[in-house]
Amino acid sequence: MPDRTLHTTYDHLISLLDSSSVGYRLIDHAPEGATEAVCALRGHPASEAAKCIVLRVKVDRRTTRHVLAVVPGDRRVDLDAVRALFGARYAGFSDPETAERLARAVPGTVLPFSFDPDLELVADPDVVAQPKLYFNAARLDRSLCISGSDYERVAKPRLERIASPAAA
């Protein structure tokens, strides 16, 4: 993905937060995209992170939807819950090229916001319940911290129970 696209996504996010009067904190850190590792760099528990995954949901033979699933960083996406939510026959991870195109970010930097009408945003209620919510800001070397309530107000995700405990 071209570097300019990444900066455009970052700039779009900052512009959206500024125009929505959202208080946020920028955190610069060593480049990292893995949830556990970046949480350690930022100095907070994984439960306060937004883990963002682009999914491919096959509703039927002709209908495929793409979903940006946002769950707490210490949990995983419950694919069965997503499949049931959409009355689909299949829900799984999107291929990397489609995920990057729709999320407008590379893996490890996907925002908990959707800037593409073909990417439906679904967040677990435990995400918006966080007083502090951390996520990479469409960059591996910079993160953001905002309140879960501000995230809900600005991103307007569909709130559904889509998280399950992380695998042991």
Task: Provide a descriptive summary of the structure in words.
- The structure is a single chain.
- Helices cover 31% and strands 29% of the residues.
- By secondary structure, it is an alpha+beta fold.
- It has a five-stranded mixed β-sheet. It has a three-stranded antiparallel β-sheet with strand order 1-8-7.
- A hairpin with a 5-residue loop joins strand 2 (50-58) and strand 3 (64-72).
- The radius of gyration is 15 Å and the shape is globular.
- Residues 1-6 have low confidence and may be disordered.
Quickly describe the structure:
The protein is of the alpha+beta class and 168 residues long. Helix content is 31%, strand content 29%.
Show the helix and strand layout.
Elements: H1 3-19, E1 25-28, H2 35-42, E2 50-58, E3 64-72, E4 75-77, H3 79-85, E5 90-93, H4 96-103, E6 119-123, H5 125-128, E7 133-136, E8 142-146, H6 148-155, E9 158-159, E10 163-165
Parallel strand pairs: 3-6, 6-9
Antiparallel strand pairs: 1-8, 2-3, 2-5, 4-10, 7-8
Unreliable parts: 1-6
Q: Please give the order of strands in the largest beta sheet.
A: 5-2-3-6-9
Shape descriptor? globular
* Distance, first to last CA: 33 Å
Radius of gyration in whole Å, from Cα? 15 Å
- Strand elements, count: 10
* Average of per-residue pLDDT values: 94
N-to-C SSE string, H for helix and E for strand = HEHEEEHEHEHEEHEE
